[in-house]
Each structure stands twice: as C-alpha cells, then as structure tokens.
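>> received
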Amino acid sequence: MANTDFSRTMGSGHQQHGFDRSRAWFERMHIDLVLFLLILLLACCGLLILYSGSGQDMTMVKRQALHFLIGFVVLIVAAQFPPLLSDCCSLGVCYWCHRPDRRTGHGRRR
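>> returned
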C-alpha cells in the first residue's frame, strides 16, 4: 500500500506568496492581536471614564474617540513599514535633536 501521507512545503527556503491568503488579517497587517485588543480595551475604558467624569458630555467623548481612531490608523500604517526604516528615521531624529549648535559648538539644550 502506498504512503498517502505528504507534506505541503514550498521548494525554496524563502517565503513565497502561495499560502499568504490563508493567514489571518492581523498577521498580514503585522499586528500583535493580543496587544491590539488590550489597547482597544484600555481606550474603551478611558472613554467610559471620560463620559462619567465629564458629566455625560457626549461631544467630549466623541472628540476623544476620534483622537483614538486617528491614533489606531497611524498605528496600523506604521506597522506596515519595515523596522530598518524606523531605525533610520530614529537616527535622523536623534541627530536633529542633538546636533551641535553653530554658535556654541555644544549639543542642543532641552
């Protein structure tokens, strides 16, 4: 009797896009689902506390919810960039903040 057990693997060692459709959306978007859900839960708790503390002022809660939404969109967009790009950008920002002052020759003061 023939062996009917087989393994589905891609031939070469590097990742190909043949099975990418089977991955979950959060894996394709490079998002840690547990951390994302915890941050979302914390944001919802913050909105409830704001609603209670503001005297049931819905305009303030809606404005803060919009700020949370913008923050989550920025988080998802930033997750799409490779880490090497963020390393290069952080080095540029670090240089910009600590570059020598032309007048004194010392680093910038905070």
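>> The first helix runs from residue 25 to 28.
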